[in-house]
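Help! Submission page says 'invalid entity' but I think these are all valid:
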Amino acid sequence: MFAPRCPSREVFAELVDKWSMLILMTLSSCGPQRFSELQRAVGGVSRKMLTQSLRNLERSGLVRRTVFPETPPRVVYDLLPLGRELAELVEPLGRWTERRAEQMMAAREEFDAAHAEG
Amino acid sequence: MFAPRCPSREVFAELVDKWSMLILMTLSSCGPQRFSELQRAVGGVSRKMLTQSLRNLERSGLVRRTVFPETPPRVVYDLLPLGRELAELVEPLGRWTERRAEQMMAAREEFDAAHAEG
DNA sequence: CTGTATCCTGTAAGATACTG
DNA sequence: CAGTATCTTACAGGATACAG
């Protein structure tokens, strides 16, 4: 993964993505979700980015897309086993970030203040 | 973290970055490293990106930068407790990616093949 | 509702050259 | 050695309009 041209680097670089991670966390904690539910849950994501990230996750075998041929159409996304595995590693990361966010913001202010002089 | 304007979202978006994660993993598994050692370890990273990522990590209180005033200068980076915490969450993610990379690549080929018709 | 297609802009990031 | 500064370009990603 530390080699530029390695497949694992490629995969890693795409998974380590803000939207993908938030989507995985949402599907993991909220269960199967429709497109619009996901868009509401993942604040600030555009339809374009949501579609794109979901396609990536689907393509890599992490997420399943199910279309119910109704009118209006209903599309539900849920985690495949592979996605569940990843989600369980990502969730601690999310919880840690929320727990430590304030501390990091404080560190930044301190850093910025210390480097403002001069 | 699911709210667009929340500090934790901001912090999260910056930590969830290819280079930052690879740097954290390197420092965690290899111990304190000089700038050039890091650049060699994290394949494909430019000086610019390495500097920028390290600054971010330093600014947020995850990494410590130590300058030894010699000639030629020597600069060593190592993890602070906060960085060590994060690194321990990121490492499983890295190991998982390497373990599953092939499987995901296969899933992609299958997906692409299935969507090529038409 | 769940997308796709198009346009448009800012910015991420490589290449290169320079500095203490 | 360990950066900084500058330039340039590709692409990420928002806005908008349209479609099944």
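Support: the input was valid. A stray whitespace character was the problem, and the output above is from the cleaned input. Residues 34-36, 47-48, 51, 67, 70-75 of chain A lie near DNA strand C (CB under 10 Å from a C1').
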